[in-house]
Amino acid sequence: MQKLHVKDIIFLTLISIIFGLIYLGTDFIYDGLTIALTPFKLGPLANDIMLGIWCMAGPLAGLIIRKPGAGFLAEFLGAAVELAIGGQWGVANLLSGLTQGLGVELGFALCRYRRYDWLTLISTTTMTALVTFAYDLVKNGYSHFAPALIALYFCVRWLSLFIFSGILVKAIAQLVAKSQQVRP
Amino acid sequence: MNPGVKLLLAILIAFLASINASLTANLAVIIGGCLYLLFKKLTWRRWLLLIFLPLPAAAAIFSAIYWGKTHTSLQYALILTTRIYVFVIAGTCVGVHLSPTTLVRSLEQNFHLPSKYAYGILAGLNLFPQMQRAVKVIRAAGDMRGEFLSWWSPRLYFKACVTAISAAENLTQGLQAAAFIEDQPRSVIASVSLTKKDWQEFSLILASFCLLLFTCP
Amino acid sequence: MTTISAHNLVMSYQQEQVLTGCDFTIPDHELSLLVGDTGSGKSTLLMLLAKLLKPQAGQVSPELAGFMFQDPRQQFAMATPLDQFIFIMENRQLTAEAAWQKIKVVSRQLKITDLWRQPLTTLSGGQLQRVALAAALLLERDILLLDEPFASVDPQNRQFMLDLLHRLQQAGKTILIIDHDLSGYEQLCQHIFRLQTGKITELTATEKDALYQAAQPKQQKFALPANTEAAAFALKNFSLQRGQTQLLQQIALNIPSGNSILLTGSNGSGKSSLLQVFSKLLPYQGHCLYQGRDLSKWPRRRFFSEVGQVFQTASDQFLTVSVAEELQLSQQHGRCKSDVIQQMLVDFNLEKYLQHSPYLLSGGQQKLVQLLVMLIMGRPVLLLDEPLAGLDQAMTKQAAKWLAWSQQNFAQTQIIVSHQSGLNQLCRYHLRLANQSLSFQEGLA
Questions:
Q1: In this predicted structure, what is the pLDDT of residue C123?
Q2: pLDDT tens, residue by residue, B153-188
Q3: Distance in angstroms (rounded) separating the CA atoms of residues C36 and C179
Q4: How many Cα atoms occupy the beta-carbon half-sphere of C291 within 13 Å?
């Protein structure tokens, strides 16, 4: 299997940076959602709604670079970059980056790094949702919610991941592939 | 303390704090961290960001836990709220007066991070201002054509990828022109020291934190 | 042996053959120049010689070289000069003592010791290129390859570096430089090579003289704007910086609307930066007004429905994945009818490429597509940053023709920055940026 080269690593770092910069423009949505949901005791749901947006870099990098480790590294670097430029989550970033990266990478690994189609994206979506949700059960106290609420949180998370880190990512990757492909 | 060791300590503390619930341990980290940051003369701007940036998330989690359960638990709500500050303060303690260059050197020399990761990431980070400009140019290019690129537009991210691809190509040539060759050994000129004392401090802080975490509520 | 040579070199760049079986040898221990039109493939050739690119066929001599990039920012992986030097020496696996000694010597030679710990992003063009040359010298290679090393360097720094290069050449280095500006080379440079249609030839003595002569610009008369003319842009107590360098300080200036204006100034004087100010991409101090209203007060979308820019880097302009889609997008929001667009497409020789990805066209074709999509928009103001790069004479003529049409048809204000003289005839006014100030001039020089 192919190894990551320094060019791939730079590319992953750069898309982490650019995506991070674009996400800055979505902070107001997160804050707004949090404020709107808090009176209904659903404040943390903002996390689950937004997660798909924050996790786009990993699946996209995996689809473009198509080498083991690319998905993980893109997610993890995204978190590290945010820490380096003074993001609001501190080291928790690295830990979330680690779990998100792990989820994405597992998704690609399940498809043996051979196919890169809808099934792969459903696999990365599901694995990312599972791994990050397991971590949030402990870290953000989701385990203390009522079972019905837990189910709601999980479904919202999966949907968000599928819409942004699945459908949108697929659309982006197709554009990139088209623009780089030589036509006779 | 050695930058790499400091980072490892912060990650371990954050990880442990996120899997076990102890208000005392959280408060100890917050107070200890703040004292350290006072000692390191953190700028007042960073202090303000440190306090107010995590506030919405902290409030959200507090309200969800405190009012969201049938058996209200102030203790647990406070633990989750302070936990967020543990994460942020631990991160600030690592980052205060530490350049990415020094951290990368430490990871390369003391923790054997392969140089292609160390310098690939560092070189990418140093392109930050150019990437900031690139995002502006992408948006302007859209506006000029009546195509407004918002954060959900695939075109925006597609352009971001294309920009990153060509910038990565250029930067790789730059590294090559600086005689950098992947997987080739490098000498050490700016050395980052890692001593027994670093590990002693590391063990001491981690042990006392664990003691609080697993014995106190 | 330090010879730079190539045998039967073939190289394509984005579907276009830029080298078609090149054979040449650059003389040892001398300083030589490489010239050729923009987009002829000079930079690609230099990168091949430096082994930063691999040729598709043929060989280059195996000797490694010190290299200076056209864009100095591409030279640096690290944040400060000293970190970059240390990085290079660690890559060369030198010991700390040896490395420090060499770093100190080279830094003294280039007078950059006081810049060691300054962030590279704050350095001026001249400082940056001195640091870049130091980085190239620290490799201690017998060959130096420099790609437009003085593009954003002031005359003083340029002379300082030229003198140093002269001394290095006398000490035995083989140096090959790409440069558009030939001033100062007459005494230093023994050989000039020209890259044209994929082949390299050395110029004869008469050709060399002719080239130095041609470097003097042709004379042309421009009009001077009257004070009563309506202003598109106006500057008031305006100042513009790049890092620590002051680029421009202007108490007052009106740029008339509804005309084509040629903006000139030496390399790195800040022409591109000024265009970026006009398109809200660069921060500045003081006031810059568009239609009497401060740029900062213009809502982004409203503003860009008035002002368009043809970017220096063509690919920055593209938003889609085929030429056809690019045209469609422009047509949707633009002011040109389809028969006009069809005519432009034919004139620009682009009909064959409708289904191609714009990113994969040749440099010149990218420029044409870029120009086409911005012409279709028909914005009241069009800012053009090097719109002719890589175009041959025939296409330059077509570009000039359609720019003139657009100017008349939409009463467009055009501000043009171009190293080529192909658009000069088009311009009614000439705005000169020199000594950090702008003024309208009648003459060209």
A1: 83
A2: 999 999 999 999 999 999 999 999 999 999 999 999
A3: 9
A4: 11
* Chain A residues with beta carbon closer than 8 angstroms to that of B156: 22
ipTM for the complex? 0.90
Count CA atoms closer than 13 A to B32's CA, side-chain side: 14
8 Å CB contact of B141 and C96: no
Do C47 and C126 belong to one domain?
yes
List of chain A residues whose C-beta atoms are within 8 Å of the C-beta of residue C15:
182
Q: What is the pLDDT of residue B24?
A: 92
Chain C residues touching residue A181 (CB < 8 angstroms): 357, 360
CA distance C260 to chain B (A): 19
Range of the domain at C420: 231-441
Q: Are residues C78 and C119 in the same domain?
A: yes
Whether residue C431 contacts residue C265, with contact meaning beta carbons closer than 8 Å, is answered with: no
For the stretch C66-120, pLDDT in tens is 999 988 888 899 999 999 999 999 999 999 999 999 999 999 999 999 999 999 9
Domain count of chain C? 2
Q: What is the CA radius of gyration of chain B?
A: 22
Query: For C357, which residue in chain A has the nearest alpha carbon?
Result: A179
Residue finishing a domain among C162, C183, C214: C214
A partners (3+ CB pairs within 8 A) are B, C
Contact (CB<8Å) B131/A84? no
Residues C267 and C123 in one domain: no
Distance separating alpha carbons of residues B164 and B155, to the nearest angstrom: 14
